[in-house]
Amino acid sequence: MGCCDTPGLMPVETALEKILDQVTPLEGSTTIALPDAMGYVVAEDIRSPINVPPFANSAMDGYAVRTADLANTDTLTLAGKSFAGIPFEGEWHAGQCIRIMTGAQMPEGADAVVMQEETDVDGDNIRFLVKPPANDNVRPIGDDVRLNDVVVAKGTRITAREMPLLASLGIATISVLVRPKVAFFSTGDELRPLGEPLEAGQIYDSNRYGIRALLEKFGCDVLDLGIIPDCPEQLREAFHKASTEADVLVTSGGVSVGEADYTKDILDEQGEIGFWKIAMKPGKPFAFGTINNAWFCGLPGNPVSAMLTLYQLVQPMLAKLSGHTQYQAPQRMKAKATTLFKKRPGRTDFQRGIYSINAEGQVEVATTGNQGSGAFSSMHHANCFVVLERERGRVEAGEEVTIELFNHTMY
């Protein structure tokens, strides 16, 4: 935790590595109904209780046939029909065929389906314009999922992609890991709640809303403790409540090294906190450690800095804490800058950008304009971060840069 005793700034990658090395997944699971499972992490491998499809069925509207019956003729007589949910259950003999709809169960003995467009129909006489191979246009039993297959692995977060899959297997409840509970609050006498008029020197509390939105997108349960004034007694009470009722406490502001602030003083008293200076812009001051029974993440106070550090450092930490083993860092790719990006060497710069694909299929990126750590309107216009390397300087239009696409938590 004594990283700030060493000179210089800590690389972003080192800070994240230090965090992830210390955090271990929460213990405990619960069983919930499938409709309530969105965003939860699966506690154990989910295996299929059935084959999907559970019976061989037709992939086309057409006619089910025995391919052997078409070896010496091109015309068969109609013996019946098979519809989805109403299979053909009678007898049919050599030289006959069955009208069948997409998804309907294959009649016993049929081994192919000829699509209706490849037939001529004259009453009950069906002339086939093709001779199908065996299994043509037939979905066999278990074609999609076989009995006892692992369909969703332990550590997967449930999304809209998993919901219909599990429903198709008739799975009504699943075992999921407990979700991290994250407490957060804002501090400062200058902060005012929304809907109240501002007086001289006051600003609206905005960080709390961005923090809550991201935490909920990360799949956490949240405990919003509101605005805490710069009062040592109230701050101590808030820190105690948050750190005993939640798994993680997130605050913004008051964690700069050397900053005269009640927040930092109380953290020194109650926790084991490392106050780091990270080589990232925006977002240099960051604190991490433990306070009572909770992990603590202290974000910078400026709005963009708070959101960026939460996104880059706290998001993967919470993924590990939640047991989300399938978590992947936001996707990065190369792009051509179409505008100037101002930068000085010394810190990895996460500038807000707008990427697009040009007429030649190349990825391009332009700045959103004002890159100040308090200019939050630039986040509204952005769809990516332009990640400029620590020792890189000014970027001219036409140069290649790395961009990081926003993941689902930003939308």
Automatic annotation (TrEMBL):
Q: Which SUPFAM superfamilies match?
A: MoeA C-terminal domain-like (SSF63867), MoeA N-terminal region -like (SSF63882), Molybdenum cofactor biosynthesis proteins (SSF53218)
Q: What is its EC number?
A: 2.10.1.1
**Which positions fall inside the MoaB/Mog domain?**
183-320
Chloroplast recorded as keyword = no
Pathways involved = Cofactor biosynthesis; molybdopterin biosynthesis
Necessary cofactors: Mg(2+)
Q: Which UniProt keyword terms apply here?
A: Magnesium, Metal-binding, Molybdenum, Molybdenum cofactor biosynthesis, Transferase
- Any single Gene Ontology cellular-component annotation: cytosol
Q: Which Pfam families match?
A: MoCF_biosynth, MoeA_C, MoeA_N
BP GO annotations: Mo-molybdopterin cofactor biosynthetic process
Q: What does this protein do?
A: Catalyzes the insertion of molybdate into adenylated molybdopterin with the concomitant release of AMP.
Q: Which family does it belong to?
A: Belongs to the MoeA family.
Q: Does the keyword Magnesium apply?
A: yes
Q: Which reaction does it catalyse?
A: adenylyl-molybdopterin + molybdate = Mo-molybdopterin + AMP + H(+)
For this UniProt entry, the molecular function terms from Gene Ontology, in alphabetical order, are: metal ion binding; molybdopterin molybdotransferase activity
Question: Which InterPro entries does the annotation name?
Answer: MoaB/Mog-like_dom_sf, MoaB/Mog_dom, MoCF_biosynth_CS, MoeA-like, MoeA_C_domain_IV, MoeA_C_domain_IV_sf, MoeA_linker/N, MoeA_linker/N_sf
Identification of the protein by name: Molybdopterin molybdenumtransferase
